[in-house]
Amino acid sequence: MPGFELVKNLADLDRELAEKVEKARQSADQKIKNAEAEAKRLLAEAEAEIHRLAEETKKKNAEENARLTETAGRRAEEEKERLRSQALPNLQQAANFMLSRVLP
User: Fold this and answer.
1) What is the DSSP letter of 1?
2) Which long-range contacts (CB under 8 A, 24 or more apart) does 82-91 make?
3) pLDDT of residue 90
4) CA–CA separation, 13 vs 19, rounded Å?
5) In the chain, which stretches have pLDDT less than 70?
6) 85: burial class by Cβ within 10 Å (0-12, 13-18, 19+)?
7) What is the DSSP string of 4-67?
8) Less packed terminus of the chain by CB within 10 Å, N or C?
9) Whole-angstrom distance, CA of residue 89 vs CA of residue 97
10) pLDDT of residue 5
11) CA distance linking residue 63 with residue 69, whole number of Å
C-alpha cells in the first residue's frame, strides 16, 4: 500500500516539523527573555552610573563653591585691611581737627 506509506511519511514529517517549530518558538522565547534581562541589567547599570556621576558633580560643585567662598572671604579681608590702613591716617587727622576746634 504505497498510499498508506505516503500518508504515514507525511504525518511523520508533519510531526517532525511541528516539533521543530515548537523548539524554535521555545528558543525564541528564551532569547527574548534573555534580551529583556540584559536590557534591564544595562538599564540598571546606566541608572547607577547616572547617579554616581550626579553625586560626583554635586561633590565637585560643593568643593568649588567652598573654594570660591574661601577666596572671596580672603579678598574681602584683604580689602578691609587695605581700607583700614588708608583710613587710620585720616582718623588721626580728624581727631586732631576736632580737638583743635574744641580745645583752645
Assistant:
1) -
2) none
3) 84
4) 10
5) 1-2, 104
6) exposed
7) HHHHHHHHHHHHHHHHHHHHHHHHHHHHHHHHHHHHHHHHHHHHHHHHHHHHHHHHHHHHHHHH
8) C
9) 12
10) 84
11) 10
* Residue at grid coordinates 516539523: 17
Amino acid at 12: D
**C-alpha cell belonging to residue 65:** 563653591
pTM: 0.57
Residue type, 46: A
Closest residue by Cα to residue 25 from 13, 14, 17, 15: 17
C-alpha cell at 38: 540584559
- CA dist 49 and 68 (Å) reads 28
Residue type, 80: K
> C-alpha grid cell for residue 91?
582718623
